[in-house]
Here is the input.
Amino acid sequence: MSRPDTPVYLQLRDRLRAWIEAENLSSQHRLPSERELAQRFNTTRVTVRQALAQLEADGRIFRSNRRGWYVTPERLRYDPSRDVGFNQYVTDQGYTPRTETLSKQLIEAPAWLSAVSGLEQGAPVYQILRRRYVDTRAVLVEHNYINPAHCSGLLSENTDASIWALFRDRFGLHPQHRQLEIYSLALKQPEADALGVSHGAAGLYIQRLSHDQQGTFLELDREYWLHDALKIVVNVGEPMAP
Amino acid sequence: MSRPDTPVYLQLRDRLRAWIEAENLSSQHRLPSERELAQRFNTTRVTVRQALAQLEADGRIFRSNRRGWYVTPERLRYDPSRDVGFNQYVTDQGYTPRTETLSKQLIEAPAWLSAVSGLEQGAPVYQILRRRYVDTRAVLVEHNYINPAHCSGLLSENTDASIWALFRDRFGLHPQHRQLEIYSLALKQPEADALGVSHGAAGLYIQRLSHDQQGTFLELDREYWLHDALKIVVNVGEPMAP
DNA sequence: AAGTGGTCTAGACCACGTG
DNA sequence: ACGTGGTCTAGACCACTTT
Here is the structure.
Protein backbone atom coordinates (compact mmCIF):
# COMPACT_ATOMS: atom_id res chain seq x y z
CA MET A 1 0.00 0.00 0.00
CA SER A 2 2.59 2.54 1.09
CA ARG A 3 5.87 2.81 -0.75
CA PRO A 4 8.60 0.67 0.74
CA ASP A 5 10.79 3.72 1.39
CA THR A 6 8.31 5.33 3.75
CA PRO A 7 10.25 6.54 6.79
CA VAL A 8 9.98 4.35 9.85
CA TYR A 9 8.45 7.07 11.98
CA LEU A 10 5.62 7.60 9.50
CA GLN A 11 4.94 3.88 9.35
CA LEU A 12 4.88 3.85 13.12
CA ARG A 13 2.63 6.90 13.21
CA ASP A 14 0.15 5.20 10.88
CA ARG A 15 0.21 1.95 12.83
CA LEU A 16 -0.37 3.79 16.08
CA ARG A 17 -3.17 5.83 14.55
CA ALA A 18 -4.83 2.68 13.23
CA TRP A 19 -4.39 1.04 16.61
CA ILE A 20 -5.98 4.01 18.36
CA GLU A 21 -8.91 4.03 15.98
CA ALA A 22 -9.49 0.30 16.01
CA GLU A 23 -8.67 -0.95 19.48
CA ASN A 24 -9.59 2.04 21.38
CA LEU A 25 -12.57 3.95 22.28
CA SER A 26 -12.38 5.96 25.42
CA SER A 27 -10.34 9.10 25.50
CA GLN A 28 -7.64 9.43 28.13
CA HIS A 29 -6.42 5.91 27.34
CA ARG A 30 -2.72 5.60 27.99
CA LEU A 31 -0.32 4.47 25.28
CA PRO A 32 2.54 2.05 25.92
CA SER A 33 5.72 3.72 27.09
CA GLU A 34 8.21 5.09 24.59
CA ARG A 35 10.75 2.42 25.49
CA GLU A 36 8.20 -0.33 25.04
CA LEU A 37 7.14 1.04 21.65
CA ALA A 38 10.77 1.30 20.57
CA GLN A 39 11.38 -2.30 21.49
CA ARG A 40 8.16 -3.57 19.98
CA PHE A 41 8.81 -1.85 16.65
CA ASN A 42 12.52 -2.57 16.71
CA THR A 43 13.66 1.01 16.63
CA THR A 44 14.93 3.71 18.99
CA ARG A 45 13.21 6.20 21.25
CA VAL A 46 14.19 9.10 18.98
CA THR A 47 12.21 7.61 16.14
CA VAL A 48 9.31 6.69 18.38
CA ARG A 49 9.16 10.26 19.60
CA GLN A 50 9.04 11.53 16.01
CA ALA A 51 5.98 9.39 15.44
CA LEU A 52 4.36 10.51 18.68
CA ALA A 53 5.04 14.15 17.82
CA GLN A 54 3.16 13.67 14.55
CA LEU A 55 0.12 12.31 16.34
CA GLU A 56 0.38 15.11 18.88
CA ALA A 57 0.45 17.72 16.11
CA ASP A 58 -2.66 16.15 14.66
CA GLY A 59 -4.37 16.37 18.04
CA ARG A 60 -4.84 12.63 18.47
CA ILE A 61 -2.65 12.15 21.52
CA PHE A 62 -1.32 14.45 24.19
CA ARG A 63 1.41 14.15 26.77
CA SER A 64 1.09 14.43 30.49
CA ASN A 65 4.37 15.51 31.97
CA ARG A 66 6.51 12.44 32.71
CA ARG A 67 3.41 10.29 33.08
CA GLY A 68 2.90 9.17 29.52
CA TRP A 69 0.95 9.69 26.32
CA TYR A 70 -2.83 9.65 26.25
CA VAL A 71 -5.57 9.60 23.64
CA THR A 72 -7.03 13.06 23.16
CA PRO A 73 -10.73 13.58 23.99
CA GLU A 74 -13.09 14.94 21.33
CA ARG A 75 -12.66 18.62 20.60
CA LEU A 76 -15.01 21.01 22.35
CA ARG A 77 -17.11 22.96 19.88
CA TYR A 78 -16.93 26.60 20.83
CA ASP A 79 -18.43 29.82 19.48
CA PRO A 80 -16.54 32.80 20.88
CA SER A 81 -19.03 35.21 19.31
CA ARG A 82 -22.01 34.08 21.37
CA ASP A 83 -23.12 35.15 24.83
CA VAL A 84 -22.99 31.61 26.15
CA GLY A 85 -20.61 30.66 28.89
CA PHE A 86 -17.88 28.08 28.82
CA ASN A 87 -19.58 26.04 31.50
CA GLN A 88 -22.71 25.70 29.42
CA TYR A 89 -20.82 24.66 26.28
CA VAL A 90 -19.05 21.94 28.16
CA THR A 91 -22.17 20.71 29.90
CA ASP A 92 -24.20 20.71 26.68
CA GLN A 93 -21.62 18.49 25.04
CA GLY A 94 -21.66 15.94 27.80
CA TYR A 95 -18.52 16.90 29.69
CA THR A 96 -17.89 18.29 33.14
CA PRO A 97 -16.62 21.88 33.27
CA ARG A 98 -14.53 23.41 35.99
CA THR A 99 -13.22 26.94 36.41
CA GLU A 100 -10.58 28.19 38.79
CA THR A 101 -10.12 31.89 39.37
CA LEU A 102 -6.37 32.19 39.72
CA SER A 103 -6.35 35.90 40.54
CA LYS A 104 -8.50 39.00 40.35
CA GLN A 105 -7.45 42.55 41.04
CA LEU A 106 -7.81 46.16 40.06
CA ILE A 107 -4.89 47.35 37.94
CA GLU A 108 -3.93 50.41 35.95
CA ALA A 109 -4.38 49.99 32.21
CA PRO A 110 -1.00 49.31 30.60
CA ALA A 111 -0.09 50.88 27.29
CA TRP A 112 -0.98 47.89 25.12
CA LEU A 113 -4.44 47.67 26.67
CA SER A 114 -4.98 51.35 26.20
CA ALA A 115 -4.08 50.98 22.54
CA VAL A 116 -6.65 48.29 21.78
CA SER A 117 -9.43 49.35 24.13
CA GLY A 118 -9.47 53.11 23.90
CA LEU A 119 -9.15 53.44 27.68
CA GLU A 120 -6.71 56.02 28.89
CA GLN A 121 -3.39 54.63 30.00
CA GLY A 122 -3.38 54.17 33.75
CA ALA A 123 -7.17 54.06 33.98
CA PRO A 124 -8.50 51.49 36.47
CA VAL A 125 -9.28 48.06 35.00
CA TYR A 126 -10.40 44.81 36.54
CA GLN A 127 -8.06 41.96 35.69
CA ILE A 128 -9.25 38.41 36.18
CA LEU A 129 -7.13 35.34 35.42
CA ARG A 130 -8.89 32.01 35.18
CA ARG A 131 -8.08 28.42 34.28
CA ARG A 132 -10.76 26.19 32.82
CA TYR A 133 -11.11 22.42 32.60
CA VAL A 134 -13.01 19.95 30.47
CA ASP A 135 -13.45 16.94 32.74
CA THR A 136 -10.08 16.72 34.46
CA ARG A 137 -8.00 18.29 31.71
CA ALA A 138 -6.99 21.95 31.88
CA VAL A 139 -7.65 23.25 28.36
CA LEU A 140 -7.31 27.02 28.57
CA VAL A 141 -6.18 29.98 30.60
CA GLU A 142 -8.01 33.21 30.19
CA HIS A 143 -7.08 36.82 30.93
CA ASN A 144 -10.03 39.17 31.32
CA TYR A 145 -9.68 42.95 31.34
CA ILE A 146 -12.92 44.68 32.22
CA ASN A 147 -13.97 48.32 32.31
CA PRO A 148 -15.19 48.92 35.88
CA ALA A 149 -17.27 51.91 34.83
CA HIS A 150 -20.37 49.80 34.20
CA CYS A 151 -19.88 46.92 36.61
CA SER A 152 -18.57 48.33 39.84
CA GLY A 153 -18.11 45.64 42.45
CA LEU A 154 -17.61 42.84 39.94
CA LEU A 155 -14.61 41.48 41.80
CA SER A 156 -16.80 40.68 44.79
CA GLU A 157 -18.94 38.36 42.68
CA ASN A 158 -18.19 34.70 42.10
CA THR A 159 -16.12 34.60 38.92
CA ASP A 160 -15.99 30.82 38.57
CA ALA A 161 -19.12 30.90 36.45
CA SER A 162 -19.84 33.01 33.37
CA ILE A 163 -18.76 36.63 33.44
CA TRP A 164 -21.13 37.35 30.59
CA ALA A 165 -24.01 36.02 32.64
CA LEU A 166 -22.97 38.48 35.35
CA PHE A 167 -22.87 41.27 32.79
CA ARG A 168 -26.35 40.41 31.64
CA ASP A 169 -28.14 39.49 34.84
CA ARG A 170 -26.38 41.58 37.44
CA PHE A 171 -25.40 44.70 35.49
CA GLY A 172 -27.75 44.76 32.51
CA LEU A 173 -24.86 44.98 30.06
CA HIS A 174 -25.18 43.76 26.48
CA PRO A 175 -22.09 43.85 24.27
CA GLN A 176 -23.09 44.99 20.78
CA HIS A 177 -19.85 44.81 18.91
CA ARG A 178 -17.07 42.35 19.11
CA GLN A 179 -13.82 41.88 17.32
CA LEU A 180 -12.27 38.45 17.36
CA GLU A 181 -8.67 37.57 16.65
CA ILE A 182 -7.63 33.96 16.28
CA TYR A 183 -4.27 32.48 15.50
CA SER A 184 -2.03 29.60 16.42
CA LEU A 185 1.09 30.08 18.52
CA ALA A 186 3.40 28.27 20.88
CA LEU A 187 2.43 28.50 24.53
CA LYS A 188 4.96 30.42 26.61
CA GLN A 189 6.07 30.29 30.21
CA PRO A 190 3.09 31.36 32.29
CA GLU A 191 0.34 29.84 30.15
CA ALA A 192 2.19 26.60 29.46
CA ASP A 193 2.92 26.13 33.15
CA ALA A 194 -0.66 26.87 34.09
CA LEU A 195 -1.85 24.21 31.64
CA GLY A 196 0.73 21.67 32.70
CA VAL A 197 2.41 21.43 29.31
CA SER A 198 5.95 22.20 28.28
CA HIS A 199 7.12 25.53 26.91
CA GLY A 200 6.48 25.73 23.21
CA ALA A 201 3.52 23.39 23.11
CA ALA A 202 1.11 24.21 20.31
CA GLY A 203 -1.71 26.51 21.31
CA LEU A 204 -4.55 28.51 19.85
CA TYR A 205 -5.00 32.14 20.81
CA ILE A 206 -8.43 33.76 20.86
CA GLN A 207 -8.89 37.43 21.64
CA ARG A 208 -12.30 38.99 22.04
CA LEU A 209 -12.80 42.74 22.28
CA SER A 210 -16.28 43.88 23.33
CA HIS A 211 -17.92 47.29 23.31
CA ASP A 212 -21.44 48.38 24.16
CA GLN A 213 -23.84 50.11 21.78
CA GLN A 214 -22.25 53.50 22.46
CA GLY A 215 -18.84 52.22 21.49
CA THR A 216 -17.61 52.14 25.07
CA PHE A 217 -15.05 49.52 25.92
CA LEU A 218 -16.52 46.73 28.04
CA GLU A 219 -14.14 43.80 28.06
CA LEU A 220 -11.02 42.34 26.54
CA ASP A 221 -10.66 38.60 26.78
CA ARG A 222 -7.45 36.78 25.86
CA GLU A 223 -7.69 33.01 25.82
CA TYR A 224 -4.84 30.53 25.45
CA TRP A 225 -6.10 27.07 24.48
CA LEU A 226 -4.42 23.76 24.01
CA HIS A 227 -4.46 23.42 20.23
CA ASP A 228 -6.18 20.06 20.25
CA ALA A 229 -8.92 20.92 22.72
CA LEU A 230 -11.32 22.90 20.59
CA LYS A 231 -13.02 23.45 17.28
CA ILE A 232 -14.29 26.96 16.68
CA VAL A 233 -17.76 27.22 15.17
CA VAL A 234 -19.00 30.71 14.37
CA ASN A 235 -22.27 31.73 12.77
CA VAL A 236 -22.28 35.05 10.97
CA GLY A 237 -24.82 36.94 8.93
CA GLU A 238 -28.58 36.59 8.93
CA PRO A 239 -30.02 33.37 10.26
CA MET A 240 -31.59 31.12 7.68
CA ALA A 241 -35.23 31.53 6.85
CA PRO A 242 -37.33 28.93 8.68
CA MET B 1 18.62 35.97 34.41
CA SER B 2 17.52 32.47 33.44
CA ARG B 3 18.14 29.63 35.85
CA PRO B 4 21.40 27.84 35.22
CA ASP B 5 19.58 24.54 34.62
CA THR B 6 17.62 25.83 31.64
CA PRO B 7 17.88 23.19 28.91
CA VAL B 8 20.37 23.94 26.18
CA TYR B 9 17.76 23.92 23.45
CA LEU B 10 15.69 26.58 25.23
CA GLN B 11 18.76 28.76 25.71
CA LEU B 12 19.52 28.31 22.04
CA ARG B 13 15.92 29.08 21.09
CA ASP B 14 16.02 32.31 23.07
CA ARG B 15 19.36 33.35 21.63
CA LEU B 16 18.16 32.67 18.11
CA ARG B 17 14.93 34.56 18.76
CA ALA B 18 16.85 37.53 20.12
CA TRP B 19 19.18 37.37 17.15
CA ILE B 20 16.26 37.34 14.74
CA GLU B 21 14.62 40.30 16.46
CA ALA B 22 17.75 42.35 16.80
CA GLU B 23 19.88 41.71 13.74
CA ASN B 24 17.21 40.99 11.35
CA LEU B 25 14.08 42.40 10.03
CA SER B 26 13.45 41.30 6.54
CA SER B 27 11.44 38.15 6.24
CA GLN B 28 12.77 35.29 4.17
CA HIS B 29 16.22 35.73 5.67
CA ARG B 30 18.05 32.43 5.83
CA LEU B 31 19.44 31.10 9.10
CA PRO B 32 22.86 29.45 9.37
CA SER B 33 22.81 25.74 8.67
CA GLU B 34 22.02 23.27 11.43
CA ARG B 35 25.58 21.96 11.43
CA GLU B 36 26.99 25.46 11.72
CA LEU B 37 24.67 26.30 14.61
CA ALA B 38 25.60 23.06 16.36
CA GLN B 39 29.28 23.88 16.06
CA ARG B 40 28.87 27.50 17.04
CA PHE B 41 26.90 26.62 20.18
CA ASN B 42 28.98 23.58 20.95
CA THR B 43 26.17 21.08 20.80
CA THR B 44 24.70 18.53 18.40
CA ARG B 45 22.26 18.75 15.54
CA VAL B 46 19.56 16.97 17.54
CA THR B 47 19.57 19.75 20.11
CA VAL B 48 19.74 22.45 17.45
CA ARG B 49 16.71 20.93 15.78
CA GLN B 50 14.79 21.00 19.06
CA ALA B 51 15.42 24.72 19.29
CA LEU B 52 14.46 25.28 15.66
CA ALA B 53 11.26 23.28 16.16
CA GLN B 54 10.30 25.60 19.01
CA LEU B 55 10.72 28.66 16.84
CA GLU B 56 8.82 26.93 14.07
CA ALA B 57 5.92 26.15 16.42
CA ASP B 58 5.85 29.80 17.39
CA GLY B 59 5.68 30.79 13.76
CA ARG B 60 8.96 32.71 13.72
CA ILE B 61 10.84 30.54 11.27
CA PHE B 62 9.83 28.03 8.64
CA ARG B 63 11.68 25.36 6.75
CA SER B 64 12.06 25.03 3.02
CA ASN B 65 12.65 21.43 2.11
CA ARG B 66 16.36 20.66 2.20
CA ARG B 67 17.21 24.28 1.53
CA GLY B 68 17.27 25.70 5.02
CA TRP B 69 15.42 27.66 7.68
CA TYR B 70 13.99 31.10 6.98
CA VAL B 71 12.46 33.93 8.96
CA THR B 72 8.68 33.88 8.68
CA PRO B 73 6.98 36.89 7.06
CA GLU B 74 4.32 38.80 9.00
CA ARG B 75 1.01 37.00 9.33
CA LEU B 76 -1.67 37.93 6.83
CA ARG B 77 -4.73 39.35 8.57
CA TYR B 78 -7.75 37.59 7.20
CA ASP B 79 -11.49 37.82 7.81
CA PRO B 80 -13.19 34.72 6.43
CA SER B 81 -16.61 36.18 7.15
CA ARG B 82 -16.31 39.05 4.71
CA ASP B 83 -17.01 39.19 0.99
CA VAL B 84 -13.50 40.32 0.19
CA GLY B 85 -11.22 38.17 -1.86
CA PHE B 86 -7.86 36.78 -0.92
CA ASN B 87 -6.13 38.79 -3.62
CA GLN B 88 -7.42 42.02 -2.18
CA TYR B 89 -6.39 41.18 1.38
CA VAL B 90 -2.89 40.43 0.25
CA THR B 91 -2.61 43.52 -1.90
CA ASP B 92 -4.02 45.78 0.82
CA GLN B 93 -1.35 44.57 3.21
CA GLY B 94 1.48 45.26 0.83
CA TYR B 95 2.19 41.78 -0.48
CA THR B 96 1.85 40.20 -3.88
CA PRO B 97 -0.88 37.56 -4.21
CA ARG B 98 -0.92 34.69 -6.65
CA THR B 99 -3.55 32.04 -7.23
CA GLU B 100 -3.21 28.82 -9.19
CA THR B 101 -6.26 26.82 -10.13
CA LEU B 102 -5.04 23.24 -9.75
CA SER B 103 -8.23 21.60 -11.02
CA LYS B 104 -11.88 22.30 -11.68
CA GLN B 105 -14.55 19.82 -12.59
CA LEU B 106 -18.15 18.80 -12.19
CA ILE B 107 -18.53 15.97 -9.68
CA GLU B 108 -21.35 14.11 -7.95
CA ALA B 109 -21.86 15.19 -4.35
CA PRO B 110 -20.29 12.62 -2.02
CA ALA B 111 -22.05 11.58 1.16
CA TRP B 112 -20.11 13.90 3.48
CA LEU B 113 -20.89 16.93 1.31
CA SER B 114 -24.53 15.98 1.18
CA ALA B 115 -24.58 15.79 4.96
CA VAL B 116 -23.25 19.30 5.55
CA SER B 117 -24.81 21.09 2.57
CA GLY B 118 -28.28 19.63 2.29
CA LEU B 119 -27.69 18.70 -1.35
CA GLU B 120 -28.86 15.27 -2.38
CA GLN B 121 -26.13 12.71 -2.60
CA GLY B 122 -24.98 12.38 -6.20
CA ALA B 123 -26.25 15.82 -7.16
CA PRO B 124 -23.94 17.74 -9.51
CA VAL B 125 -21.43 20.01 -7.81
CA TYR B 126 -18.60 22.15 -9.10
CA GLN B 127 -15.32 21.33 -7.44
CA ILE B 128 -12.45 23.79 -7.68
CA LEU B 129 -9.02 23.21 -6.15
CA ARG B 130 -6.72 26.21 -5.81
CA ARG B 131 -3.35 27.06 -4.34
CA ARG B 132 -2.63 30.58 -3.15
CA TYR B 133 0.58 32.46 -2.52
CA VAL B 134 1.69 35.47 -0.51
CA ASP B 135 4.67 36.79 -2.43
CA THR B 136 6.49 33.59 -3.40
CA ARG B 137 5.33 31.45 -0.50
CA ALA B 138 2.43 29.02 -0.95
CA VAL B 139 0.31 29.56 2.17
CA LEU B 140 -2.93 27.70 1.55
CA VAL B 141 -4.78 25.20 -0.57
CA GLU B 142 -8.48 25.58 -0.97
CA HIS B 143 -11.24 23.17 -1.96
CA ASN B 144 -14.41 24.82 -3.23
CA TYR B 145 -17.68 22.95 -3.66
CA ILE B 146 -20.30 25.06 -5.39
CA ASN B 147 -23.96 24.51 -6.14
CA PRO B 148 -24.26 24.90 -9.94
CA ALA B 149 -27.96 25.72 -9.73
CA HIS B 150 -27.33 29.44 -9.48
CA CYS B 151 -24.09 29.85 -11.34
CA SER B 152 -24.21 27.65 -14.40
CA GLY B 153 -21.10 28.00 -16.49
CA LEU B 154 -18.88 29.02 -13.60
CA LEU B 155 -16.15 26.61 -14.64
CA SER B 156 -15.66 28.52 -17.87
CA GLU B 157 -14.79 31.67 -15.96
CA ASN B 158 -11.32 32.59 -14.77
CA THR B 159 -11.08 31.18 -11.25
CA ASP B 160 -7.69 32.64 -10.41
CA ALA B 161 -9.36 35.72 -8.97
CA SER B 162 -12.14 35.91 -6.39
CA ILE B 163 -15.01 33.45 -6.70
CA TRP B 164 -17.10 35.70 -4.48
CA ALA B 165 -16.59 38.54 -6.90
CA LEU B 166 -17.85 36.24 -9.64
CA PHE B 167 -20.87 35.36 -7.49
CA ARG B 168 -21.63 39.00 -6.98
CA ASP B 169 -20.84 40.57 -10.33
CA ARG B 170 -21.57 37.78 -12.77
CA PHE B 171 -24.39 35.87 -11.08
CA GLY B 172 -25.92 38.37 -8.65
CA LEU B 173 -25.51 36.00 -5.73
CA HIS B 174 -25.24 37.30 -2.16
CA PRO B 175 -24.59 34.78 0.60
CA GLN B 176 -26.70 35.68 3.62
CA HIS B 177 -25.68 33.09 6.14
CA ARG B 178 -22.37 31.53 6.81
CA GLN B 179 -21.07 29.02 9.25
CA LEU B 180 -17.36 29.01 9.95
CA GLU B 181 -15.36 26.20 11.47
CA ILE B 182 -11.77 26.79 12.52
CA TYR B 183 -9.31 24.45 14.15
CA SER B 184 -5.69 23.48 14.07
CA LEU B 185 -4.54 20.20 12.59
CA ALA B 186 -1.54 18.53 11.01
CA LEU B 187 -1.38 18.84 7.23
CA LYS B 188 -1.75 15.50 5.47
CA GLN B 189 -0.46 14.08 2.22
CA PRO B 190 -2.17 16.07 -0.54
CA GLU B 191 -2.25 19.45 1.20
CA ALA B 192 1.24 19.18 2.65
CA ASP B 193 2.67 18.21 -0.72
CA ALA B 194 0.82 21.03 -2.44
CA LEU B 195 2.29 23.52 0.03
CA GLY B 196 5.78 22.07 -0.15
CA VAL B 197 5.95 21.11 3.52
CA SER B 198 6.40 17.74 5.12
CA HIS B 199 3.59 15.49 6.26
CA GLY B 200 2.40 16.45 9.70
CA ALA B 201 3.37 20.12 9.50
CA ALA B 202 1.13 22.32 11.63
CA GLY B 203 -1.81 23.81 9.79
CA LEU B 204 -4.98 25.75 10.38
CA TYR B 205 -8.24 24.55 8.87
CA ILE B 206 -10.99 26.98 7.93
CA GLN B 207 -14.32 25.80 6.61
CA ARG B 208 -16.94 28.18 5.33
CA LEU B 209 -20.48 27.08 4.52
CA SER B 210 -22.62 29.62 2.68
CA HIS B 211 -26.34 29.72 1.93
CA ASP B 212 -28.46 32.35 0.22
CA GLN B 213 -31.40 34.13 1.85
CA GLN B 214 -33.74 31.24 1.09
CA GLY B 215 -31.50 28.81 2.88
CA THR B 216 -30.27 27.22 -0.36
CA PHE B 217 -26.75 25.87 -0.32
CA LEU B 218 -24.37 28.05 -2.31
CA GLU B 219 -20.81 27.08 -1.49
CA LEU B 220 -18.61 25.05 0.81
CA ASP B 221 -15.03 26.23 1.12
CA ARG B 222 -12.35 24.21 2.90
CA GLU B 223 -9.04 25.97 3.37
CA TYR B 224 -5.80 24.44 4.62
CA TRP B 225 -3.35 27.13 5.74
CA LEU B 226 0.19 27.02 6.98
CA HIS B 227 -0.27 27.68 10.69
CA ASP B 228 2.10 30.63 10.76
CA ALA B 229 0.79 32.42 7.70
CA LEU B 230 -2.34 34.08 9.04
CA LYS B 231 -4.14 35.82 11.83
CA ILE B 232 -7.90 35.61 11.72
CA VAL B 233 -9.75 38.84 12.45
CA VAL B 234 -13.54 38.67 12.54
CA ASN B 235 -16.02 41.40 13.33
CA VAL B 236 -19.39 40.30 14.62
CA GLY B 237 -22.45 42.12 15.88
CA GLU B 238 -23.54 45.65 15.15
CA PRO B 239 -20.93 48.09 13.98
CA MET B 240 -19.97 50.78 16.46
CA ALA B 241 -21.89 54.00 16.48
CA PRO B 242 -19.95 56.75 14.71
C1' DA C 1 30.39 17.96 -6.36
C1' DA C 2 29.20 20.05 -2.28
C1' DG C 3 26.00 21.35 1.08
C1' DT C 4 21.57 20.97 3.21
C1' DG C 5 17.96 19.08 5.91
C1' DG C 6 15.68 14.29 6.70
C1' DT C 7 16.15 10.16 9.02
C1' DC C 8 18.16 6.94 12.23
C1' DT C 9 21.21 4.35 15.72
C1' DA C 10 22.61 3.11 20.46
C1' DG C 11 23.40 4.53 23.95
C1' DA C 12 23.46 8.05 28.47
C1' DC C 13 21.91 10.79 32.62
C1' DC C 14 18.38 13.60 34.81
C1' DA C 15 13.90 15.28 36.96
C1' DC C 16 9.68 14.14 38.11
C1' DG C 17 5.38 11.37 39.04
C1' DT C 18 3.67 7.33 41.03
C1' DG C 19 3.66 3.38 43.91
C1' DA D 1 12.43 2.73 44.49
C1' DC D 2 11.03 2.50 40.09
C1' DG D 3 9.28 3.82 35.69
C1' DT D 4 8.37 7.65 32.83
C1' DG D 5 9.28 11.18 29.66
C1' DG D 6 12.91 15.12 29.03
C1' DT D 7 17.29 16.06 27.45
C1' DC D 8 21.62 15.15 25.20
C1' DT D 9 25.82 12.97 22.80
C1' DA D 10 28.42 11.58 18.64
C1' DG D 11 28.18 9.82 15.25
C1' DA D 12 25.95 7.73 10.38
C1' DC D 13 23.74 7.44 5.66
C1' DC D 14 20.30 9.22 2.47
C1' DA D 15 17.61 12.35 -0.74
C1' DC D 16 17.39 16.43 -2.50
C1' DT D 17 18.83 21.34 -3.88
C1' DT D 18 22.09 24.26 -5.36
C1' DT D 19 26.38 25.58 -7.49
